[in-house]
Design goal:
heterodimer, A: alpha+beta, 2 domains, 6 helices, B: 412 residues, 8 helices
Amino acid sequence: MDRSNPILTECGDEFDRAVAAMSHDSFELYERVAVTRRVELDIAADRCHQVDGVERGSAIRAGAAAPFVASSGGIDQLLRRASSEMLERSSAAAWNLDADNVVDLDRSAEMASGQEMESWLRRNASTELVELRSVWAETALTLECWSDGRHTQKRVRGRSWAAWSPREVGRMSARPLVAAARNWRRLSDFDPDQAWRERERHRGRAIPWPGGAAIVLSPDVSASLAYRLALVLHAPSAQSGAEVGPGWRLFDRPLDRTALFGSSRDDSGFPTSQVELADGERTLNSWSRRGCERRGSYRDLPQPSPTCLELIPPQVEVPSSAVWVTDLTVHPGAAGEWLLELHARPYPEGVGIEPHWIRIRPAAIARSCLGAVGESRQGMQGVRTPALLFRPDFG
Amino acid sequence: MGRHRCRHLFVESRHDRRIEAESGRPTSVVLTQRSGASIELLDGQRRFASDLQPDQLDRLATTQLVGSAYPNSAPKEDATLAIRRWVEQLLAAAERALPGASFAVVWVDFDQEIVARSLQMGRDRRRSARVRLDGYLQKDGKQSRASAESVIRERTDSQIDDLVVEVTERLELRLDTQTVKPDTSTVVFAPGVGGVWIHELVGHAAEGDTVANGESWMSPGIAFFPPALTVMDDPRRGRGGWRIDDEGSPAQPTAIIRDGGLASFLHSNKTAQAAETRSSGHGRCSSFRDAVLPRLGCTFVANGSHHPDEIMKEVQEGIYVRRMESAHTDPSSGFALFRISDADRIEGGKRTAPLQSHLLETLAVEALAGITMIGNDLQFDRCIGSCHRHGQPLVTSVGTPTICTRLMKVRN
């Protein structure tokens, strides 16, 4: 197995030895090793700080009724801890990997050098649109191993992030701008100037919210709203067949190798597959199925979750009266309603608009989705979407 | 750990336990342990690793570092089964008290030991246990939700009774909630509950790095707080408190506002150096992977002189807040938004109908200037969530007596 960091090879081999030595016949064993490098540019001081680290941890579960035990360090340490904690061992297997041994190696995964990252940061740290406080970039390589005692699977993935923190607030959204990619080289595809232009919301005095204006959500606002909507509208408990607007054409595409969390296996080792969640007329499926489990770290139980959501709506014309939403916050309200807080400017540009509040049911938002405005982009949670056009007040 | 050439060393060992029981589902037990170290070199570069052996710390530093063992916090294996039984007992008691309702119990505890050294060296042990009971009731086409939380120092039957009574009473009462008009309102916070309000409005604006970056609405010379208002942060108090921070500095009780005047800010070593003062022992990191930031410990409002009944009598129309679920703030403008999940209407000085969940928004300057009365019934830890800052979660505590303010804006 060709891995680009020696610690990954060492840990992967140790995992194999530990599995071979296990005496139980029903268990789930998981190990994760993450090697990370982060470089932060303090703009005021014009200095870079580098943070290098490695974290290794493993977890074991032997049936739904037994404790899930996780520990940093090697497998030996985990097993010592687990043996004293397995108070009510169950004979039921929570785990059942259904394939032969698999090694899923992302050959494009690589760590960038500190120097390379510093040069990239300095090239991308200047913009006329906003005064920045700091910019950082991070690259990581992870090795993950799973075993149920019969089959062992391994995966190596790379991931890179960058974030720009603005100093000024008010004129611009205060949220840091974040770019994410599977591969360090792909971060260059992200254009921070373009993203800042999309976020600019206040120029001069704010005007009242224009009644009857169509709503265009910027791509990163669309991505975060689409993720929250998918959790509700396509949840395991939601019934398929609910009406959606022509723009709500939603897929979960974990097999896309450029997707941030894409993989042939989910975080529990099960094979993944593409699913159409909505076709622009009705909701069709739930994201919850075998092959959609994710975990935040080795310390977390895997949980069903949408993995690689992608909206592919038809392109539409924006009406003459429209607003461009730069920030949207969802506040859960009473009886399943949402209270939306919107910050916007006129579309395509203009002075700021006073914040606007809308009380609405989540399903109504998807029903009012009309289509795409511009090109798609991948956001923080792995959601790929263009800017989305909605009817006035999501009505 | 006598001789080293690093600016900051941090070593931790931490055990976490989470037990969840829910009506009709098997109990889930998650036990996690993590150990790790981080080191910041003189040039500002930082390195971290999980589970280094003491003799490997020098490899991390690439310089001679004479050894220190990992802190040795022993896991309490025998406690897990006993806690699980107590959690299941609590669930069963709630189900017996209100048949037809469904309940969920979440137990969370941790035990962390750290060794830290920057300007001085210190060791500390932090422990915390808390439990939350959530209830859901559907009856006659209506539905209600209610929750209660408690910090656990010793598991007792009376704690089970208290939690069950609080949740079941509110579940039944909240079947008939009234809507709140979007308007400006007088708000009375129940004792303890107003702590979240003060944590957001005052606490975050007093964190040393926010102040140093010019991003705090509080600035020296500001003088418009009510004279009866004293806001403290004492990290040694409350659940999960610390006596030594993650830089090895002793935690100091710090007055942020004293008798209506701005007193001081909360500092780590780095922010203290920039402000030409000494660390107040508020430097914390979520784990060995993270950078140290000035953080809030236990933020509270000191007792005032009014009896809570006296405060209620003065309010002809308003909202009595019993529980807040979440909050966020912009320390630069002082704007803050709170999600109220349980509250009653106040009419003629009395609590009347329960209200639907809603949002309260305010500007710190207006809300603090609008404080009319502060009670003499200080309580801690009625709201026991975690505070997230720059992606780092941390257990924090809050406290307030009953407190009344005007000029809170209702959103629903």
